[in-house]
Amino acid sequence: MEAGSVPAVSRAVSVVVNGEAYEREVDARRLLVHFLRDELDLTGTHVGCDTGNCGACTILVDGEAVKSCMLLAVQADGVEITTVEGLEEDGILSPLQQAFSEHHALQCGYCTPGMLVSATYLLNNNSEPTEDEIRKALQGNICRCTGYVNIIGAVQAVVKGEVSA
Amino acid sequence: MSGIEIEASTVVEERTQAPQIGFVGQNVPRKEDKRLVQGQGVFFDDVKRHGMGFVHFVRSPYAHAKIVSIDVSRALELDGVYGTLTGDEVAILTDPFFEMSTPPGSEIKDYALAVGRVRHVGDPVAAVVASTRELARDASELVEVEYDPLEPLVDAERALEPDAPILHEDAGSNVVWSGQFDWGDFDGALAEADHVVRIERLHFDRFASTPLECSGCLVEYNRGTGQWTMHCNHQMPGIGAIWMAPSLRVGLDKLRFVTQDIGGAFGNKICLHPQFVACCLLARKLNRPVQWTEWRTDQHTANAHGNERTFLDVEVPVKADGTMLGFSVRAIDDCGAFPRYEPLGCIIWAQVAPGCYRWRNIRVDFTQVCTNKSPVSPNRGYSRMQHLWLTERIVDIVAKELELDPIEVRKRNYVRSEDMPYETPNGCIYDSGDYARCLDIALDLIGHADLEEKRREAEGRGKLLGLGIGSTLDSGTNNFGQSQLLNPELQFSGNNEVATVKLDIFGEIVITLGTVPQGQGHETTAAQVAADILGCTPDDINVRPGHDTYWNSHAGFSGTYASQFAVTGLGAVKGASEKLAGEMRKLASVVLGCSPDDIELAEGQARMRENPEAALPFMALGAILNANNAGLPEDLDVTLNCRYVYRPVFEVPDKERKFGNLTLTYATQIHACVVEVDRETGVYEIVDYAAVDDCGNRIHPQIVEGQVHGATAQALGAATHESFPYDEEGNLLTPNFYDYHVPHAMDMPPMKNGFIESPSPFTPLGAKGMGEGGGAGIHAVCAALQDALRAAGGPIVNDSHNNYGRVWELLRDPGASRALVRVESGSGS
């Protein structure tokens, strides 16, 4: 890039996030995760790496689990997004959110949003996963605190319906 | 290690005391969880300020080079670039950071940015601030730096050679610190021994806990008062300020650290002062808030690795029955380019000098050097982990060479429960514990009775099965006086932590901690302790999340590090709560016209024991004192806002003998690991795993178990796939999660847990600090591999990191490692 040149080619993006419609003029180079965090102030979606390995930024895009650091914001034009902030309903925690707390499936809580979204995606598509299927579904999400033991246990508890209302 | 079908987790518990009636000891719901599962936590990168600029560091591509020139002019020409900072400015505006070593290490000059020379790949040479993250990164590409490359130094032993390149010319040597430790009578032990086992070389590898949230801060400068506020994830602000304030030439109170949620730290967020000082300078220079979020690649290349350590010339005098009399070793520790928290690692290992064993004669020659690699920082298990790996390797190698059972050898040499509290040869007091009992539970959990049958069954499938034990101590609550054994001039000793508990006007109890939690559940456990003392529930208590210097609820050593919250943090909460309870009883007695001794606190009320109808709800007490206090006696000394400093009892250690108690508590971890190794490829799988923990009274068993899981996962990662290797030019080969493989959900083996409780006689709640775990998983994996490979030429596992390739090397040439060990007859035989 030459000194003095301005890369800010921007584009209008309309997107529905957690049921709310947004229209924004977005820098063409802006990552979706930074758009969500910095422009929509949805800071629950986290950034833990710069290579797409950690999964802390996982969201649902039209129902598919996606690492939001691997998409540009402009690519989200016209899609429906669910972030961790959209998992609860009317202030009631989802069974997975509840189970994560009951089973001590989080310590620092930094991987938790991505972990919850990946687990939500799994259960949306497979209501009775085996333990091996749970592990496979979460292998794109790194946790440095829990060793995954209680995370697996929390998802299993939801599968078995063992979550207090 | 993929594709394991997992058994349900097994948990065995033995509690030494009857379950308590109160909240302490119960698994109450964590207060932190609701906001975190909703994505409503506040991590530093979530904090925004109007007009803030984003910082990007320009970093060295060379491991070792002179900086010839830096030209920032092209970056400054970009629209939206607010300004820059270079090493030349830093050298004028700041003083070098305080160094803890004696000469030559004390002569090292460490600044916020590289001054004149870069000493590792990723060393920051300049910083650029711009209106967006992306622009700051682009603009940093336009900063032109001319380097004159120097010979890189990437090997700790080479660092000591006379013709080695010198990193820090001011020091004139690559040595940071060196010293001798000699406890007991090692020569006498050699004379008494039947055998002397000699191990030429062992190597503890370089890795880091790599918290998922990278480091960073948002810094605001107040022009009127000259005060900086840092919204950040520094885990030890007290020490951070001691580094930063003199460097910035300001008083300590000009630095305000604010944290709420922190995405893991594990010691890796203790040495953030260089980057924070750069951000403080930029906030002042540019007259705007500046924000720095470290990139993952930067964290791996240029922030905080764990210490790498090489052990040379190990000598172990052994009696014929397997009783070991001690050991001697020459240790060379590699702290990377700058010492920072070092040379504390040169003494911290001495907290566990004999490991779990009754070894009375220990001689250690310890040298720490600089190399052209990332600086180190405390890393979960800090310095003790490296040393405990040595003690565990000693046990397994001696057992192998003398054809003894490593389990029996451990039991023969363990410190015995009946000898607790036990004084080690260097004056440390192991407070309580039953290592042999923990080992028995671990062996039961992995089905030791059927091990030989399983070994044969595995052989039938072409697999080599092995069992390994890792015995460790998690020493907690430091006596900072140990720093004086490194440098007698240092003015650090003892320890302290603070809590403030108040009763507010509407009856709300508010706790302010001095600690800086990163997932350890401090809000929850603090509320449990206070609730039992104040006669209410944890739900009635608001524990402020995080840390704020301006809450004035901290002391010199405040922070969250070194396995101590259950002792220091909760000791402070207990002290402050008892103080408040006393004041509440006193105030109630004045109102109700009785003696304070007649008042009990229960069910959210202060009431008369003999007449519970005569009761004041907490709200009434809060309101009377704070807002309706006319008529109260003039001499009533009640504030309902009670600050307490917990200070464990310590003496300054004897500097001549290097003798004294260096930590207050010793939690135990005994791990048992079963591996199956593929004979052809070296690929191995952990097929069974048990971790038994004893941290005294558990305040919240579920949190303790979670810490055990996490410490084990980090240790297994370090043992198998996590490593920070460098090439000859000083390039890190694993600079991000692409190459640096941490355990994923598919990698973790089945985990069985056991717990016993040996209460500490020295702590306010009988609890011990825990959570670091002493690297037991690394030791257990090494031992299991060595056991498995007995049937394949019997190599010695001489490195802490054993990826599949390395195991294949051991299989291919078992003689190479065996040649490192020899057994001689001792004078006593």
- Biggest pleated-sheet summary of chain B: 8 strands, mixed
DSSP helical segment count of chain A: 5
Mean pLDDT of chain A: 94
Tell how many strands the DSSP assignment of chain B holds: 31
From the coordinates shown, what is the CATH architecture of the largest domain in chain A? Roll
Strand content of chain B: 15-25%
Instruction: Tell me the structural class of chain B.
Output: alpha+beta
CA(first)-CA(last) distance of chain B: 45 Å
Oligomer: heterodimer
- Please identify, by name, the CATH architecture of the largest domain in chain B: 2-Layer Sandwich
- Give the helix level of chain A as a range of percent: 25-40%
Radius of gyration of chain A: 17 Å
Number of domains of chain B: 3
**So, the CATH homologous superfamily of the largest domain in chain B?**
Aldehyde oxidase/xanthine dehydrogenase, molybdopterin binding domain
The CATH C-level name of the largest domain in chain B is Alpha Beta
What class would the helix/strand composition of chain A place it in?
Answer: alpha+beta
The figure for the number of domains of chain A is 2
Mean pLDDT of chain B: 96
Named CATH topology of the largest domain in chain A: Ubiquitin-like (UB roll)
Span between termini of chain A: 56 Å
